[in-house]
Amino acid sequence: MNNKLKLGLLALTGSLAIATAVQANNFKDTDHAIKYRQSAYQVIAYNFGDMSAMLKGEKPFDATVFAKRATNVAALSLIPEEGFITGSDKGNTEALAKIWTDKADFDSKMSQFQENAAKLAVIAQSDDKDAIKAAFINTGKSCKGCHDVYKAD
């Protein structure tokens, strides 16, 4: 893994974290927070779905596009967290109230997803398809691990 790439990803992640912190608590109401996080998750799902299709052979594997999708997911993974404001378990959402009663575990699972997504973005820059697939699976598992506990289906 190239050090320049790692430094670039760290800089991007740091910039996004700062931008996210600055934007925190700018929601006019809980519905706005819900729409915000749902929008981010929709874009994450699109990017993740495209990568999945490539790995399953449902569409040709394009290393450049895959790497871009992985970078997108890493950046986007930082966004939804701020939309989980108190009271936003009510309304048009599948978020369970347990998010707020077990916030430490939820935050831990969110952090794990963010870390796995960042690792996927770095590994996706390589030519090692086995490592890419393993990182993709780990990222997906961290999504599922949170959904299984904190999302109504």
Overview of the structural elements:
This protein has 153 residues and is mostly helical. The protein contains 6 helices and no strands. Helix 2 runs antiparallel to helix 3 (63-76), helix 3 packs antiparallel against helix 5 (103-123) and helix 5 (103-123) runs antiparallel to helix 6.
Major beta sheet, specifics? Answer: none
Q: Give the helix/strand class.
A: mainly alpha
C-alpha Rg (nearest Å): 16 Å
Number of helices: 6
Would you count the extended β strands for me? 0
Strand percent estimate? under 5%
Distance between the termini: 39 Å
Overall 3D shape: elongated
List the helices and strands and how they pair.
Layout: H1 3-23, H2 30-55, H3 63-76, H4 98-101, H5 103-123, H6 129-150
Structure summarized in a few sentences:
This protein has 153 residues and is an all-alpha fold.
